[in-house]
Structure formats: C-alpha cells, structure tokens
Design goal:
CMD-like; mainly alpha; AhpD-like; Carboxymuconolactone decarboxylase family protein
Length: 186
C-alpha cells in the first residue's frame, strides 16, 4: 500500500495532467497532487521528455527501463516495457536491460550499448567516466546527449519517488495497474 493516501483533485493542475495523459490520472499523479506546484512542474518536464525531445524513442525507453531495473521500480518497468516494445525494442532487448546488461553486446546496437553504459554510470556512480562519455559522443549529437542525460536524471527521480512512497506497488490491487494511454508512468 502507498505510504500516503492518493489525492483526488479537480484543480487546473490536475486538468493539465489529465490533458497530457488522455483524460486519466495515474497513482503517481494522484500522489504528486499533494503538492500542486511540484505536480505541475513534473507534468511539464515529463511532457517535454516524452513528447517534445528529439531523442529516438527506443533510446529513451532503454534508459527509462534500465533506471527502473537498477532502482527496483517495478511499477515504472511494467508501465514502460510496452512503450519500449512499441518503440521497436524486442523482448530479448528489454530482458537484457532488466537482468543481464553485461550480455547486451549481441542484443543491442552500438548506440544503444553506449546509452546503456551511460545510464548505468549516471545511475550507479553519478560521475561518468571519460571513456563512457566519449563512446556516447560517437553516437549522439549535443542535443541528444542533453536529452538522454535529462531523461536518465528525471527517471531516477521518478523511480525513487515511486519506490520511496510505495506508489503503484503490486500489493495495491487494481490501483497499481492504472497507467496512461500509452502505458507509461510519467
């Protein structure tokens, strides 16, 4: 069960969130609405990452899934795995992100492997070694690197928020299964 009650809200902020999500609020949204200012900023940031960035969808979802796996955010994983599949990732590719990233060489293309290494470094160590950044730079331009970095950082925020407050935990029944129209958490 979530550590705080889910908030019900008909405010302008909630309306903006519903608009981005196709009319629905997720458990994450309902938790964020305890602080309308945070919920509004979150909605704007995630809207930019999910819908207005130039980063390829498969690379964005690779980073999101890997962050979810590293941080034990099952709700985030379950919401984004179908999005990653629609973005062209195979079941084998998503499985390697969850359990066997060291075996990604034969499953992911070179750009995806560079994004995976960057995601791991940012999430596990924070400081990214030069060799990982140089490999990333050989596959992505400056805008894509900024967008990937923002995606990784933002989804670390999302996953840590979900895990700390037990949002969408599987012991919550049907409430845990409420996700947005394209299956994503944030």
């Amino acid at each position: 069960m979530a550590r705080l009650e889910y908030h019900s809200d008909d405010s302008e902020v909630a309306a903006r969130i519903r608009e981005r999500r196709g009319g629905k609020l997720t458990p994450l949204d309902r938790m964020l609405l305890h602080s309308p200012a945070i919920a509004d900023g979150w909605n704007s940031l995630l809207g930019a990452i999910r819908a207005r960035a130039s980063l390829a969808d498969d690379v964005r979802e690779l980073a999101i899934l890997r962050v979810a796996a590293l941080n034990g955010a099952d709700y985030e994983w379950n919401a984004h795995e179908p999005v990653a599949r629609r973005a062209g990732m195979t079941l084998e590719q998503t499985e390697v992100l969850r359990e066997h990233a060291e075996n990604a060489g034969g499953v992911l293309n070179p750009g995806q492997r560079a994004a995976l290494a960057y995601t791991d470094a940012m999430t596990r160590c924070i400081e990214v070694p030069d060799e990982i950044f140089l490999e990333l730079r050989s596959h992505f331009d400056d805008q894509q690197i900024v967008e990937l970095t923002a995606t990784i950082g933002t989804y670390n925020l999302v996953s840590r928020f979900l895990v700390a407050l037990h949002v969408g935990r599987s012991d919550q029944g049907a409430e845990a299964d409420t996700i947005d129209e394209d299956g994503a958490v944030a």
